[in-house]
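Repro:
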Amino acid sequence: MNATMNATQNASESKSGIDTNLAAAALAIALVALITALGQLLQQYFATADGYRRCQKSVMGGYARKTRLRWRWREFRFETLYTVPEIFLVGHGAPDRENQVILAGNATAREKSMVPLGYIEETSDTSPKLDRTYQAVHPDSKELRAKREQMVVKGLRSNGVFQNELACWVPLLHWIHESSKIALTEEHCPVPSSMPLQGLPPRVRLPAVTLRELSWDFQPPDVVRPLAKTTLFDIAVIARRMGMKWKDFRPSDGILRAEGHSHTITSTTVRSLGIVLQYSFTAQGHRLRRTEGNLRRAVPGSLLSEQEEIYIPNAKSDRLGCGVVRSAAALSLPDFSVSTQSEIITALSFLDDTGISSRALTQILKENPEYHFRVADIVAFTAAPVRSRGSSLVQVPAPSDNVHGVTTSLMGRVSFRQCIEQYIMENPGKVGPLSRSALGLCNEIRSKYPAWDYMTPQTVHGNQWVVTRDVAYLDFLHEHCLEITTKFAKMEEETSLRYHNLLGVHIRMAMFCEEGETSPLRSWGTDYVSDIKGYFKVLPQIVKEMLNTVHVGEEIDEETVFDAWI
């Protein structure tokens, strides 16, 4: 009987254990099902956050830290909020913005703009050794260019092309930092690592960003990556400063294309947005530099490559790059544009109010539509100095297709000095004290700074490509340029002789003279020596024409007019 009771008890305990195991298994399965259901539910809710996966680090870099979700109770879903930069120019007339971050290339600016130096690393030293002959002609430019080409963003493939998943404005911000840093260094405005982000050195304009939080709800379906924001003027100037040239610039048609120094910008039109730009960095310059080094070792002679472009970072330089010439205020001249031939015709009608010069250029363009008027001289005769005192930078963006002229040529300067000497020797009684002072100034510059008219094989056959010059030399010229402008302003106060009239007469009778720089003879090439000699040949006619512009009864002799022309 006891055995039977024990067996029954054991069977009951065994059945209870089985029931417990089954209950535990059922509970586990229920928990798994609950967790799965909760996971699916959460997944469904998180799936309502449209665009969240497109705002991650692989797409936005450091800006992914600002991506967040916001729950909308009324719609019972998540909304994706992401942060992108708005790129603009600030300083030297451009207003500051709240919470702006200046893209100056220093550590603080990189950290605040979320493009830290950690994104870049030095590549192996595969660039060729510097050619000291080239370096002597182009001071500092090749070293800066080689240094810039050695900087490659981390995460690039071996061929140096950015990964396609990355939003294009991330590498763009990096290269804006680099170009600004180089320009400030050459401008002698070095930026410390802890530079205040709200302040700028005087007379300097730099790119900056502000951070804007946007909702993916307003993103058009055609756009798959977050878009930064900028204006057409700002990106046009920034691209030019980075060394790109606008191959096609038709914003009214939605067509924009710029390229140069391994940078490329193209455009497309998106419905409901307008023009959308795509930036890419190809690193072709670095590969071309290696090829150039290999060819230099194998082939004698020189090779043509992209010249370094480091432009003066201020508003005057930016305006010139857009073809706008802001005349010196003391000379009472109008502002004008020279980016196209039609604009040059309009500018000539302002500078020479007789209309003869504008009609002459119109006729030339009818006979030869491919002709491009040389604008360097009228820019030099009208614009105030673009550089700032203490700066070694001398580069400004080309305002037009033909930026040659006697004022930009060493041959022109040498010929001008020699013609003054000869004229004074042959006509001592027709020369005033200001002309002799101008010749003395030329000789002083020549003695202090031999490079002013020192002839080399490069300068005989064409203009030098120069990025920087000696600061003392530039400051010397800067001061005398302002001094001469002041003398003209004083002369206009004391007499009826007007610089505007003198410039118009010079353009009409010297620049458009027979066999001059606008004649068919010059279509085969420039001859600055002949141009200067032609100026002095028609000088008596210029003096006679200027005497007809003064007030009746006012005594102004030929010496005064000649001094003013010189």
